[in-house]
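Q: Study each token:
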Amino acid sequence: MSGHTTLAPAGTAAKRKEARTVIMSSYLGSTIEFYDFLLYATAAAVAFPKVFFSGMDDWVGVVAAYATFAAGYVARPSAASSSATSVTAWAARACSSSPWP
């Protein structure tokens, strides 16, 4: 025996179960993120202008609140992209210096 094991291909039932898990995880994550942005948008329109931008005109306070909402909306994908790139580079370096063949 060579010490290397090979995995048998997954059956159809296992592939369906994995596909269902991926679909439900994606659905749940998207639903939570949508709800998060919905609540933040509502708060940006109703509460943030009065709480955080009270010294400004009402219209300017609403625009400033929506600007913070837009900054978060734009920053999330760019932060995820840069984070994924740095984590991938770190993992590649860690794996290349591994003591195992």
User: Anything to note?
Assistant: The chain has a mean pLDDT of 80. The chain has three helices and no strands. The two ends are 17 Å apart (CA to CA).
